[in-house]
Write a structure and sequence with these properties.
The chain has eight helices and seven strands, in the order H-H-H-E-H-E-H-E-E-H-E-H-H-E-E. By secondary structure, the chain is α/β, with parallel strands linked by helices. It has a domain of 156 residues: Vaccinia Virus protein VP39 (Rossmann fold), CATH 3.40.50. Helix 1 runs parallel beside helix 3, helix 2 runs antiparallel to helix 4 and helix 2 runs antiparallel to helix 5.
Length: 226
C-alpha cells in the first residue's frame, strides 16, 4: 500500500462510497498489490495501454467495482476475456466468496492472472486458458458473467447466454448508447432470455463524457421489454 498515498486511497474510497461501495483495509491492500504487479508486467508486455498507476485507478479500477452492489455475495462468477484483470480481479476482491473462473486465451495474459492470484492470496478462483467457445455449454452455469470491451453486445449475449443461470446477471462495460445497442441486439437478447434490468450511469474523475455499466438478467420465461 506504500506505493499509493493516503490522499489517493482516500479519494478512491470516497468516490466508491458515492455508489454504496466500501472497501476494507485488506481489500485495499489486495487491490494495490494487483495494480503494482500490473505496472511491473506492463513494462515488459502490453497488458493495457494505460501506464500510470493513477490512470489505472481512474480508467479501469473505479468502474470495474461499480456492479458490486447489484451482484450476489456467493455463487459462481465467470469473466470472459479477462486480459489485464479488469473487472474480474477487483470484483473478486470485493466479493471474495464468489467462486470465480477467468477465461483468457492468450498464454502471457493467463500467466499474469495466475501470478496476481498467487500474490493476492485469492481463493476459489482459477484461470481457464482458452476462449469461451472452448468451454462446455452443457456444463456449469454461472450466477454472474462479466466482460469488458471484448465484443459488441449481440455477440456477447450469444456467447454468454448459454452459461448464465436463470436469475443470473450479465454485466457489460460498453459505454453509453444502451437504447441503440439493445435495439440492435433485441432478437438475440430475446432468444437468450436476457432482460436489461439496471443501468449505472457515472462520470470518472477528471472526465466529462458520461458512461454506463449495463446489467442484464436471465429470465425463466420469455424476456420482458426493457
Amino acid at each position: 500500500m506504500a506505493a499509493y498515498t493516503t490522499g489517493q486511497i482516500r479519494a478512491l474510497k470516497s468516490w466508491l462510497k458515492g455508489f454504496h461501495i466500501e472497501l476494507a483495509g485488506d481489500q485495499i491492500e489486495r487491490i494495490c498489490c494487483f495494480l503494482d504487479e500490473l505496472v511491473r508486467w506492463n513494462q515488459k508486455m502490453n497488458l493495457t495501454g494505460i501506464r500510470s498507476k493513477a490512470g489505472l485507478v481512474q480508467e479501469l479500477l473505479l468502474d470495474s467495482l461499480l456492479p458490486g452492489p447489484y451482484l450476489p455475495e456467493t455463487g459462481s462468477f465467470l469473466d470472459v476475456g479477462s486480459g489485464s484483470g479488469f473487472p474480474a480481479i477487483p470484483l473478486k476482491i470485493l466479493k471474495p466468496l464468489l467462486i470465480t473462473r477467468l477465461v483468457e486465451p492468450k498464454k502471457k495474459k493467463a500467466s499474469f492472472l495466475r501470478q496476481v492470484i498467487r500474490l493476492t492470496s485469492l481463493r476459489n478462483i482459477e484461470v481457464f486458458e482458452g476462449r469461451i467457445q472452448d468451454l462446455n455449454p452443457s456444463g456449469q452455469e454461472y450466477d454472474v458473467i462479466t466482460s469488458r470491451g471484448l465484443t459488441r453486445l449481440s455477440r456477447l449475449a450469444e456467447w454468454c447466454g448459454p452459461y448464465l443461470k436463470a436469475g443470473g446477471r450479465m454485466v457489460c462495460f460498453q459505454g453509453s448508447g444502451r437504447e441503440t445497442m439493445c435495439r440492435e441486439s433485441q432478437e438475440i437478447l430475446y432468444r437468450k432470455r436476457l432482460s436489461h434490468v439496471i443501468s449505472i450511469p457515472y462520470t470518472l474523475p477528471g472526465k466529462r463524457r458520461p458512461r454506463q455499466v449495463w446489467i442484464f438478467e436471465k429470465q425463466d420465461g420469455p424476456v420482458r421489454s426493457g
